[in-house]
Write a sequence for this structure.
């Protein structure tokens, strides 16, 4: 008797399960629901009983850990780039100072020749 499932809105799912999925999570849940041949109330009860909340919670934890790793990597890269730029700036300042001193020496040499 496939295909007799009536669309379930996310608000109905939340009301029936007490769990608020993200939009992306709900799309997966909805696809699972549409692939079954039971009503939404039974689907939600079965989903909860079969560990749906725990499964999505574990997936969220893994995603958070992935994002934290990405953030830490990005911060480290940013700090490394900042240090490289700081070193380059200091090098440019030293070179500018050397050039200024050479220019002063040339000016003094020209003055002494005149």
């Amino acid at each position: 008797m496939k295909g007799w499932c009536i669309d379930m809105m996310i608000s109905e799912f939340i009301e029936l399960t007490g769990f608020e999925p993200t939009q992306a999570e709900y799309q997966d849940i909805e696809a699972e629901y549409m692939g079954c041949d039971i009503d939404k109330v039974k689907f939600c009860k079965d989903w909860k009983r079969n560990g749906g909340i725990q499964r999505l919670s574990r997936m969220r934890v893994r995603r958070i850990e992935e994002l934290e790793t990405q953030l830490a990597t990005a911060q480290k890269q940013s700090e490394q780039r900042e240090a490289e730029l700081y070193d380059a700036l200091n090098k440019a300042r030293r070179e500018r100072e050397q050039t200024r001193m050479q220019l002063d020496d040339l000016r003094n040499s020209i003055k002494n020749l005149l």
